[in-house]
Design goal:
mainly alpha; 4-stranded antiparallel sheet; 2 domains; 235 residues; 4 strands
Length: 235
C-alpha cells in the first residue's frame, strides 16, 4: 500500500465511524420503548456494512472530482488498485460488525422478525401485561415495563445464524461499494440485496428456510461487484 491508499483508508474509516455514531444516536432516539442496548448493538452491526458503503461513495466522489482516480488510471493502476484504500477501510468496518454481533451483550433476536401466534396479553395485578415487550397497561392509563418473556413456541435464533448473515455482507460490501458502476446499477443492486435480505431473515425466523441460506444475502452484491471490476479490467 502506498501513501494515497492510506489517505483514502483514513478518510473512509473516519467517516464510517462518524456515520455509525449518527445512526446509533438516531436509533436510540426513535426506537420503540423497551429496546435494550443489546438490541441496538445487533441492529447497528447489520447496518455497518451499508454505512461503510456510504462512506466509500463520499470519499470516492471527492477523489473523482479532484482527478485523483483519473491520474492513477493514467499511470496504469488497475480499477481495484485505485480503490484499495477504501476497500481496506470497508473490511475493517466489516470486522467491527462481526465483533458487535459476537459480543455476549448483543441481542441477535433483533435481526430476526418473529410474529408469534396465540394470546399476547395477560392479566397481572389488574393490569394488562404484554410478555413480548414487558409493557404493563394499568386501568388508569399508565404504562410501565416489567418482565420480558419469550412467547411460547418462538425459537430464539442462534448467534451463529446472525454471524452467517452479517459475515458475507461484511466481506462483499467493501468491494461492491468501491466497484466502478453507475448510480442506476448501484441502486438496483442495493434494492435487490435489501429485498433478498429481508426475505431470508423473515423466512429463517419463521423456520421456512435453514439458517445456512442467510449466506445468500450478499449474492447480488458479489455478482455485481465481480462484473463491474471485470468490465473495467484492461484488455
Amino acid at each position: 500500500m502506498h501513501a494515497y491508499d492510506r489517505l483514502l483508508g483514513r478518510r473512509c474509516l473516519g467517516l464510517s465511524v462518524l456515520l455509525a455514531l449518527v445512526a446509533l444516536g438516531i436509533a436510540a432516539a426513535t426506537d420503540e420503548p423497551g429496546s435494550t442496548l443489546g438490541t441496538r448493538l445487533a441492529r447497528l452491526a447489520a447496518l455497518l456494512p451499508a454505512i461503510a458503503v456510504v462512506a466509500q461513495q463520499i470519499v470516492l466522489a471527492q477523489s473523482r472530482a479532484r482527478g485523483e482516480l483519473a491520474a492513477l488510471s493514467a499511470l496504469g493502476c488497475s480499477p481495484l488498485g485505485q480503490v484499495r484504500g477504501v476497500v481496506l477501510a470497508g473490511v475493517l468496518v466489516g470486522l467491527g460488525a462481526l465483533v458487535a454481533v459476537a459480543l455476549p451483550g448483543s441481542d441477535v433476536r433483533a435481526l430476526f422478525p418473529v410474529v408469534p401466534g396465540g394470546r399476547s396479553f395477560g392479566l397481572v395485578e389488574g393490569a394488562l401485561w404484554d410478555p413480548r415487550s414487558g409493557a404493563l397497561y394499568s386501568p388508569d392509563g399508565a404504562i410501565s415495563f416489567g418482565e420480558v418473556r419469550e412467547p411460547e413456541g418462538a425459537a430464539a435464533p442462534s448467534r451463529s445464524a446472525a454471524l452467517g448473515f452479517v459475515a458475507p455482507l461484511a466481506c462483499v460490501a467493501p468491494f461492491w461499494g468501491a466497484a466502478p458502476m453507475g448510480l442506476a446499477s448501484r441502486l438496483a443492486g442495493a434494492c435487490a440485496a435489501f429485498a433478498l435480505a429481508v426475505l431470508l431473515l423473515h423466512a429463517v425466523a419463521a423456520r421456512r428456510l435453514p439458517a445456512a441460506c442467510l449466506v445468500l444475502g450478499a449474492l447480488p452484491l458479489a455478482l455485481q461487484a465481480v462484473r463491474a471490476f471485470r468490465a473495467r479490467r484492461p484488455a
